[in-house]
Amino acid sequence: MFINGEWRESSSNEWIDVNNPANGDLIGKMAKGTTSDTSDAIDAAHRSFTSWSKTPGKDRSRILRKWYELIIKHKEDIAKIMTSEQGKPMKEAIGEIIYGAGFVEWYAEEAKRIYGETIPSNSNNKRILVHKQPVGVIGAITPWNFPAAMITRKIAPALAAGCTAIVKPASATPLTAVKLFELLEEAGLPQGVANLIVGSANDIGEVLLNDERVRKITFTGSTKVGKMLMEKSSKTVKNISLELGGHAPLLIFEDADLDKAVEGTMSSKFRNGGQVCIATNRVYVQESIKEKYLSKLKEKVGILTVGNGFDNDTDIGPIIDKEGYDKINMHIKDAIDKGASIVTGGNGKHEGDCNDFGYFFIPTILDNANEEMIMMNEETFGPIVPVTTFKYEDEAIKLANDTNYGLAAYVFTENLSRGFKVTEALEYGIVGLNDGAPSTPQAPFGGFKESGIGREGGHLGIEEFLEVKYISIGL
Predict the structure, then answer these.
(1) Maximum distance among all alpha carbons in the chain?
(2) Catalytic residue numbers, as ranges
(3) Does one domain contain both 336 and 399?
(4) What is the per-residue pLDDT across 207-228, written as a single tens digit (0 to 9) for each?
């Protein structure tokens, strides 16, 4: 762990095994942090907050810029670690490192642009100022599917704003975080400003939630856990940002460019083997073009290669573990039992002797999906595309919005008016119009409804880590 500027073992001397999901090989061990270690991390972050929050934005910017340069310099080394512990193909891992570094670069600049304002007073003997200051110590809890980008997307704006941080990455993928923190240390971050701890989510989370010195929780993960964090954060009325589950629809209208729609389906569905919160989870295609769309999509899906992320020709790596694999199988069985037909794929495989890891799933297209199927109502988190049809524009919008989730949606049409009308009607925080890969550091990422609270990325992302203070001055 990295606490108060020092690398140290756990106070309990316990360790967590880190395994390669492609074959179950033990690739490393991570110190298992305790509640006592978490308290130490909070102590360090709290002590360092006073000086870090007063550090000029230009100086914070310089450290973040150096961190960005080091990440880019070592992107292949970090990617190898990521592929070893998370499984995604090396080319995707390198892409994630570059994407994640983009947040550091962006917020290195934003650190110098935290502006206040003056407001005209209704009295000649008063002046009104608005001042922004860092919220305080923050706790960042990140998932396994993007072990680099979810860390940089959270702590780059936090550090830029003048906050100090405790980061708890997923126990399945902590080694990428370790490498990022090694580079952050090399960049010159002062002692105690950012701390890294891995261990029981319940134990570490309870300490973060109950300590009133931790003023903000930022979390990416399931809606179920997000609701729990909301509830428990209320005890100390913490500021909270949540990027939660999604159930992304992809709408294809008969006036769409079908080649563009297929490419959009591929990029929005199969990145990271479908283990992405904004991955397409259900496709609605207008009746008149369904067969053409399925034919083109089947051709593209059929050439995808499944295998170890270190193999040069691999497009889709392993499922993270047996639990994830079993969920995919259950969703497909349920769909077939309820009338779906397999266009291609439909099965998985297990390699190696380890029962917990070594699971792969063949990219799958299902036709004749319907709203009774589990996968049409829940995230599958796998390389599965269920396809169904609609007749009219209003019907497509209604089907897309008929969910408690509202993270991402995709629309393909060449009609400008339709594009505006449909995207504005969709109840989602992110909409890709003829775009299957909308994520970028300079834009706000976040959802409606049960998909979360707050935004990450862009100029709005740093606002999540700032308090607004109004100062009334009598002359």
Answers:
(1) 80
(2) 243, 277
(3) yes
(4) 999 999 999 999 999 999 999 9
